[in-house]
Design goal:
InterPro entries: DUF3240 (IPR021634), N-reg_PII/ATP_PRibTrfase_C (IPR015867). With 104 residues, the protein is of the alpha+beta class. 28% of the residues lie in helices and 31% in strands. It is globular and about 40 Å long.
Length: 104
């Protein structure tokens, strides 16, 4: 395991299900994203005005989460590309610092 203090981050992307395939294709085409995880996700607690009636009744918004472990600079480069190519799609993201990583 690496020591605490890396310049790596976890970039999490929450994508509406309608854009899942587009996101997979987009990430697979980027050298900055040599590997990533994807899994089903559900958003709870969204402002009702941003949810469809179906989502309000269910109490959640369906989505697909993508996670990448990468250097912070690479994550910012990916975000710049995403901002251009996925503007207006409802994509949400967040970055988390990584204290350590490795293989066991």
């Amino acid at each position: 395991m690496t020591e605490f203090a890396t310049a790596e981050v976890i970039l999490t992307l929450m994508v509406p299900p309608a854009h899942e395939t587009d996101m997979v294709d987009w990430l697979m085409a980027r050298a900055e994203a040599p590997g990533f995880f994807s899994f089903a996700g559900r958003g709870h607690g969204e402002a009702p005005s941003t949810m469809t009636v179906r989502e309000q009744v269910a109490g959640r918004r369906e989505g697909v989460a993508f996670q990448l472990l990468c250097p912070a600079e690479r994550a910012h480069n990916l975000l710049a590309g995403l901002e251009q190519d996925f503007a207006g799609t409802g994509l949400r993201y967040w970055l988390l610092p990584v204290l350590g990583s490795g293989r066991l």
